[in-house]
Amino acid sequence: MSAVEMSESGGPMVPQVVDPIELIDDGNASSNDGYQGNQKGFFFWAAIAWLIFIVICVLAADWIPGLPGPEERIADRDIREGPSAAHWFGLNNRGHDVFARSIHGARISMGVALVATIGGIVIGGTIGVLAGFYRRGIDATLTALINIMLAVPGLVLALTLVGFFAPSGGFEDQRFLFFDVAPTTNATIWATIALSILAAPSIARVARAQTLVWSDREFVLASRTIGTRNMRIIFRDLLPNVLPAMVSFALIGIAVLVVVQATLAFFGVGDVTATTWGGDINIGRDRLDSEPHMVLGPSLFMFLTVLSLNYLADKFTQFNSVREAGV
Amino acid sequence: MNQRREQAGAIGALAAVAVLLLSWLLGVNGIIAFTLAFAAIVIGSAITSGTYVFKRLAALIPTLFLVTIFVFFLQTQRVSSQDVAIRVLGPGATPEAVEQFIDRNDLAEPFFSRYLDWVSGALVGDLGTSFINNTSVTDQVAQALPISLQLMLYSQLIAIAVSVPAGVYAAYRANQRADGVISTSALGLLSVPNFVLALFLVYVLGPGWLDVLPATRYTYWGEDVWGHIKQMIMPSLALGLGLSAAYMRLLRADMVVTLQESFITTAKAKGVSPRKVLWSHALRPSLFTLLTVFAVNSAGLIGGALIVEIIFIIPGMGNLIGTAIVGFDFLVLQGAVVVLAVGFVLLNFLVDLLYTALDPRIRNVRS
Amino acid sequence: MTGSMADDVCRLTKTPAEEPLLSVENLRTQFFTPRGAVTAVDGVSFTLERGKTLGVVGESGSGKTVLSRSIMNLLPSRNVKRTGSVRFDDREILNLSDSEMRHVWGKEMAMVFQDPMTSLNPVMKVGKQIIESLRLHLDVSKKEARSTGVELLRSVNIPEPEKRFEEYPHQLSGGMRQRVMIAVALACGPRLLFADEPTTALDVTVQAQILNLLQDQQIERHMAMILVTHDLGVVAGRADEIAVMYGGRLVEKAPTATLFRDMKHPYTEALLQSIPRIENPSHTRLKVIGGRPPDLVNQPKGCAFAARCPRVQPRCLEERPELEPSLAAGHSFACHFPVESAGSLSESSN
User: Fold this and answer.
1) Which of A19, A25, A322 is the best mutation test for C, with the most CBs of C within 10 A?
2) What is the pLDDT at residue B303?
3) pLDDT tens digits for B134-150?
4) B78 touches chain C (CB under 8 A)
5) What is the C-alpha separation between B44 and B7, in angstroms, rounded?
6) C173 Cβ neighbours under 8 A, 6+ residues apart
7) pLDDT digits (tens, 9 = 90+) for B317-329
8) pLDDT: which is higher, B89 or B6
9) How would you classify the pairing of strands C91-92 and C192-196?
10) CA distance linking residue B231 with residue B208, whole number of Å
């Protein structure tokens, strides 16, 4: 009787193995598919490529050879020509190349959103992790704070902050903390701060939920029982687990903030002199009937950027859920 | 017995919404309607369960306190009374005029006494008077709110009408071609900012191209019904289509999970048709996330409608807030934000009641 | 379409009683997964007379659940292939479409699922779930359906049926829910009932009650039943015939009495030895079957049980044994080196 062994406990009568029917159902839920597979398809790489291109625009638009500057006059302001081989998105009412302006516009449009997302993760992540880790009073207080911030429509909050702190007219001192800055830069910095504050409560919510889940896991309990300091548990045990789950959320955050930033610029709040997608759409708005290409160029750039971010966020969520399921 | 009371509460809350909608349709003053609805919700829910309502209302107080004191702080710290006076009176104002203005509006008073003044007014429905155009903030909000509620209602209706069938069908055909088409379109639609969508609609449907819809000034319902509908189609679409994409994705994700449940197989094994399985068995348990987001969006939508209201020249809350921010009319801004925050908390509250109607399991948990 | 289906069914009911109600021939079910094709049911054949009970026994992963769902055509429609023949009431139903099967589901065949917690709709009142199929298959008014529904609840021994009718599943205990599930399945008076591990998710104290209820209802309604379980003890006193499944195949099939008197397959023997027996001293260790069920993607060349079999010989690894009749009537088994002794019951205690 070699294969039929004696049980130590008289435990389960039959070894538990996944029933094929469950296996099939799982397969249907996540993995099997023609389109939304877990394999990185064409669209995945296209989205990555577009974002790399945008990041290059953010960092090095001024040094791209042959690209006109945002304020460079190509033609007299009366020409306003449509798209052509030389000027892909045509010229705007001031004779600027719309395509070149779309590329230059990435710097502030995307740069503000990126920095603000990082800021939002730092602020919101801290709040969320602390609330989730310490629970009780701290959690109650921070959750109340999060709910209060969420009770004010985000765009109104951002407009209020930027509108009050960085008036586009500029009638006060041009200092940001201890630094003398140009009024335009001041406006941009305030826009970034406003967007960070805007993103923080949602991020805090996710971080809190994740922390609540992870801090109940055995390895955290184990760390506690051997007397590890709280900060060490947070940094060594929790953060590495909480952060990956926030990647897809951060991507959505950037996408949302790109749109909010554009909305602010479209609204004419903040630095109105800067070249941004939202600002250029606003400029083109009055001439929509006669020169739709003025709106089309920056809109297309913004659409592709937001689409790429949303798509990648979806993909990361899938990777994550597959990874979780595999655990 | 408890269930009966829960249901009564939910019905009361729904009645409150009906009162609110009816009131503006009949042209009743917005604030009165709002107060009526508020009272109806409170009474409806007081029947439901006392402590729960009090907890909810208590949560409202710190929210309102912080929001108002924040806006107050902004205007006092950042914008001096001199600036306000100069902005209102124009750059050429004499120092005497400025002095007089500050005096008249108590701008020189200390921060907290001015704040308390405002709060005591707000408690009896007086949200202050705008410096810019010297009109009552309460009146301005009362005029703007119903218009925003209309826009919100229309765009939510569009969003639900599009997203529910699309989401249900995509979940039914999960990972097949139809799902691929629907889900990809939703992702695309989700990536178009609503002001870009608005401009696109204006270009395509407006005078630029097809010339079928006006992109002009808001028309009142009572004034010209057909004109009102025609005018509201584009703004409602601009807001509703993006929402529908978001809703559809939520519904699809939840529904795919529900369709894997064994009670769906039970229904199938009874001989229930796929259509009935989807609509009467799978839909209701899949609605929870959608409902939450629906509520969160409803309040957010009033703010989010800001740009759309400005593009389409609709004199709603968005426009009011926008004008107030640009014109430093902080009392108007404050009044509007407070009303939105109250609305947000009440909506969340309403959603909780709806949850109990949707999911009988929750009833027991709470009681 | 609907009319002709109903006519068919009516005509079919009049077939002579000698015909078996259900006859499954060489049924094979394959799932196409990312890992490869899984053959969950592999060449299963059996027949079931009207009013009789077949017990299908096997451990998790043996394909017994897939077997019952394959017969009922309840598997997901995609990435699944079924071949062979399933004749119900002398009519081939294997290749019927879902819309055709809908006239059979609930009305002719019904299923009681394993877990009553998840197989009842949590947001629908119990009563509505019962009368749903009544309204669907039988031409009854809402009022009639309601009184039938309450009657059904009473017949499955639910106290205060009128009150329970208006309740939601979460307000009932596990045993109650399974009774409701049985009432749902019995609603239209099916002629074949599948009970897929109907007691696994329940407390031990309720298990016997539920099994007895099933048996009573079966006798009362002269309904055939396929009772799927991992527990030989469950089917011992209740099934007319027992089929033991392993790795998607039938490895032994016999009338109940014959099987317990003279089991031939080592797997059947091992299954029996894993059940606690009342006549043994209270701390007797149970035997477990070592190893895991076979991988259904890469099936071994020889006997699927060879890797775990105590009696394994080189031939078992090379040549797969076929299900062949033994000397006893109705008894067949698939093993090259069957268990010889007739006294396997007494051996199990040591």
Assistant:
1) A19
2) 61
3) 788 888 888 888 888 88
4) no
5) 10
6) none
7) 888 888 887 777 7
8) B89
9) unpaired
10) 16
CA-CA-CA-CA dihedral for C95, C99, C103, C105, to nearest 10: 70
Task: Report the residue of B263, B275, B288, B361 to disrupt the C interface, i.e. the one with the largest count of C CBs within 10 Å.
Answer: B263
With a cut of 0.90, is the ipTM above it?
Answer: no
Those of residues 224-243 in C touching chain A at CB distance below 8 A are: 230-231
Q: Which residues of A touch B179 (CB under 8 A)?
A: 35
Q: Which amino acid does the sequence have at C153?
A: L
Give chain A's domains with CATH numbers.
Answer: 108-277+290-326 (1.10.3720.10)
Strand partners, A175: A180
**Structural contact between residues C300 and C294, judged by C-beta atoms closer than 8 angstroms:** yes
- The sign of the CA dihedral B183, B184, B187, B189 is negative
Quickly count: other Cβ atoms within 10 Å of residue A223's Cβ.
Answer: 18
pLDDT reported for residue A19: 41
Closest CA to A98 of A65, A70, A79, A58: A70
Q: Work out how many domains chain B is built from and give that number.
A: 1
Hunting for tokens 């509620």 — which residue is that? Answer: B149
Q: What's C308's DSSP letter?
A: G
Residue A128 vs residues A203, A275, C153, C286, C299: alpha-carbon distances, Å = 8, 35, 50, 51, 50
Question: B331-345: b or e for each residue (b if 16 or more CB lie within 10 Å)?
Answer: bbbbbbbbbbbbbbb
State which residues form the domain around B178. 2-366
CA angle C47, C212, C346 (to 5 degrees): 75
A-C Cβ pairs (cutoff 8 Å, strict)? 98
Residue C44 pairs in a beta bridge with C27
Consecutive H or E run containing C253:
strand C249-255
User: Treating both helix axes as pointing N-terminal to C-terminal, what angle do A42-60 and A98-134 enclose, rounded to 10 degrees?
Assistant: 100
Task: Decide if A21 and C40 are in contact by the 8 Å CB cutoff.
Answer: yes
Point out which residues pair with C54 in neighbouring strands. Answer: C226, C241
When comparing pLDDT for B201 and A30, which is higher? B201
Name the residue with tokens 């409170």: B42
Distance from CA of C77 to the nearest CA of A (A): 11
**DSSP letters spanning A110-170:** HHHHHHHHHHHHHHHHHHHHHHHHH-HHHHHHHHHHHHHHHHS-HHHHHHHHHHHHS-SS-
Whole-angstrom distance, CA of residue B84 vs CA of residue B87: 5
The amino acid at C181: M
Q: What is the CATH classification number for the domain harbouring B186?
A: 1.10.3720.10
**How do the residues of chain A divide into helix, strand and coil, expressed in percent and rounded to 5?**
65, 5, 30
DSSP string, C44-75: EEEEE-TT-EEEEE--TTSSHHHHHHHHHT-S
Neighbours of B157 (CB within 10 A): 12
Q: What are the structure tokens assigned to C128, written together?
A: 């509505």
Parallel, antiparallel, or unpaired for β A179-180 and A175-176? antiparallel
Q: Which of A230-239, B112-121, C225-234 has the highest mean pLDDT?
A: C225-234
Does C74 contact chain A (CB < 8 Å)? no
Q: Is the pTM here over 0.90, yes or no?
A: no
- Which residues 203-242 of chain B have a CB within 8 Å of chain A? 203, 206-208
Split at pLDDT 50, 70, 90, the class of A324 is low
For B266, the closest of C78, C101, C119 (CB atoms) is: C119
SS3 content of chain C, % helix, strand, coil (to 5): 35, 20, 40
On whether the CB atoms of residues A281 and A298 are closer than 8 A, the answer is yes
Q: In sequence order, what are the residues at sequence separation of 6 or more whose Cβ sits closer than 8 angstroms to the Cβ of residue C4?
A: none
Order the strands of the C36-48 sheet from edge to edge. C36-48, C22-33, C80-88, C91-92
Banded model confidence at residue A321, pLDDT cuts 50, 70, 90: low
